[in-house]
Design goal:
heterodimer, A: 113 residues, mainly beta, 7-stranded mixed sheet, 3-stranded antiparallel sheet, 12 strands, 0% helix, globular, B: 110 residues, 6-stranded mixed sheet, 5-stranded antiparallel sheet, 11 strands
Amino acid sequence: DVKVTQSSRYLVKRTGEKVFLECVQDMDHENMFWYRQDPGLGLRLIYFSYDVKMKEKGDIPEGYSVSREKKERFSLILESASTNQTSMYLCASSFQGGNYGYTFGSGTRLTVV
Amino acid sequence: GQNIDQPTEMTATEGAIVQINCTYQTSGFNGLFWYQQHAGEAPTFLSYNVLDGLEEKGRFSSFLSRSKGYSYLLLKELQMKDSASYLCAASTGGGNKLTFGTGTQLKVEL
């Protein structure tokens, strides 16, 4: 069963902490994405990657960074967590090209207190 | 910029048909995806339209008009388990980047 795995389902962190969200896919997908989902705002793209060691900013990259050292792993980093980063974070992956849908992970609900 | 609009909420009766509309204004448009998301779960793929017309897949069908920037998802023979959020997403650019609408929360009632 192919899948995208996010390391934590629920996470509570303190303001100012450095937070790592991990995502691993076993489908040999080239593309990986990080979104956050908030009520009334839908899914918004934070960062994405088309290849190892490659990254591109999405629509809301401020306060975030990413790392992709291996094809199967894409990490989202909150350098100094703030309360406005409390959200549901969804990782997704897909093959290259415009015809392929995403496979999503089950999400990480992050609360920053 | 990219803009995708869909209704916030809809209510329908079990066994009925419901149509969820989506309009989009994007650059570098490749195609239109529909996803289903149950509360507390990840979105799951429903359909993809790249050409104009209707794509049918069981109880679900999706339509696209590229010239009008318009799509709809049609759900037939509604079941209680169809209560979920339905996300419209436009694929743009060369790398399968998706821009999502805010989702339509569908409630199926007896």
